[in-house]
């Protein structure tokens, strides 16, 4: 079985032939967190709009290059006992409540309140069950994404693709100092990351813990990584072979630590402080691979960057 997808692979929808069926209206999709405690049907109306929010707060809360939303009328979440709501802000939506699962920290989206009444839900599309999204809806979403607050976009997603992927991280390789932290600043770190190793992951865990289309990880030697604030830091076993550092206050996922790589820690580029990432990333940062593409959501289209597309992890 090949672990690679064709270099031309850009979307699971493309491999299914992109059958266009009648434009969907009032469909229900399923919002389901990683632990399954939170599961709710959400109605997508013909007026529902989709967008990628690049604002700083969304990037930091979702720990991703951008957040992907579908805006729907508020859903009754009263029976969902594992929901946490925390006030926040989004440059696109204004004052919002950010929502996540108290048990597994999956990100669910944000709610807008007007005159004391909840009115709109910005559904975090990374947490929507793939199987509940008909191809026709995925196709519609894919063609209609608006880019919101692009003026605040991160620089690192524009890093150049490179085929020269280093197989091992060693102290001799070039390193780049960055700092970063969670959305509430209860967890802060400094790291000397390997700038030639940005890896995009589309697995369900990365998607649901971020609510985004993908997360981006870059390795760092453990000796080059330090927590400068760990007031709300927790280390959670998220798979049989790895753990993630998370913030217990704001739900941000900050790193992956693999059991098989005790000397290495993988911070998420989505939590880097913008001011510590070079403005001109073209000579200093490189993107090397798309992994776990088999779990990529059908509404997302990969950039035509010619990078290797792995079905599974490394
Ligand atoms: Zn959960
Ligand atoms: Zn935003
Ligand atoms: Zn936090």
TrEMBL record:
Keyword Cell wall biogenesis/degradation: no
GO molecular function: carbon-sulfur lyase activity; metal ion binding
Keywords for this protein: Lyase, Metal-binding, Zinc
Domain called CENP-V/GFA: residue spans: 178-280
Coiled coil: none
The UniProt record lists the keyword Membrane: no
Annotated InterPro entries: CENP-V/GFA, Mss4-like_sf
A Pfam match: GFA
Family: Belongs to the Gfa family.
PANTHER family on file: CENP-V_GFA DOMAIN-CONTAINING PROTEIN-RELATED, GFA DOMAIN-CONTAINING PROTEIN
Protein name (database record): CENP-V/GFA domain-containing protein
């Amino acid at each position: 079985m090949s672990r690679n997808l064709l270099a031309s692979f850009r979307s699971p929808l493309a491999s299914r032939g992109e059958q266009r069926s009648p434009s969907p209206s009032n469909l229900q999709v399923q919002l389901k967190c990683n632990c399954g405690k939170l599961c709710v049907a959400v109605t997508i109306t013909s007026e529902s709009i989709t967008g990628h929010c690049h604002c700083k707060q969304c990037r930091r809360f979702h720990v991703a290059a951008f957040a992907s939303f579908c805006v729907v009328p508020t859903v009754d979440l009263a029976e969902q006992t594992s929901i946490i709501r925390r006030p926040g802000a989004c440059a696109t939506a204004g004052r919002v409540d950010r929502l996540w699962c108290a048990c597994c920290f999956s990100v669910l989206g944000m709610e807008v309140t007007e005159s004391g009444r909840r009115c709109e839900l910005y559904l975090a599309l990374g947490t929507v069950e793939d199987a509940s999204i008909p191809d026709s809806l995925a196709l519609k979403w894919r063609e209609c994404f608006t880019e919101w607050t692009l003026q605040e976009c991160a620089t690192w997603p524009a890093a150049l693709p490179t085929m020269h992927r280093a197989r091992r991280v060693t102290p001799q390789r070039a390193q780049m100092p960055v700092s970063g932290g969670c959305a509430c600043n209860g967890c802060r770190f400094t790291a000397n990351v390997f700038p030639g190793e940005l890896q995009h992951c589309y697995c369900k865990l990365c998607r649901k813990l971020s609510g985004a289309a993908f997360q981006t990880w870059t390795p760092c030697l453990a000796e080059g990584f330090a927590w400068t604030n760990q007031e709300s830091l927790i280390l959670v076993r998220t798979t049989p072979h790895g753990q993630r550092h998370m913030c217990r206050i704001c739900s941000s996922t900050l790193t992956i630590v693999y059991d098989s790589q005790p000397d290495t820690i993988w911070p998420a580029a989505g939590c880097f402080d913008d001011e510590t990432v070079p403005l001109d990333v073209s000579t200093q940062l490189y993107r090397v691979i798309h992994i776990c593409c088999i779990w990529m959501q059908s509404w997302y289209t990969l950039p035509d960057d010619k990078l290797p597309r792995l079905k599974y992890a490394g």
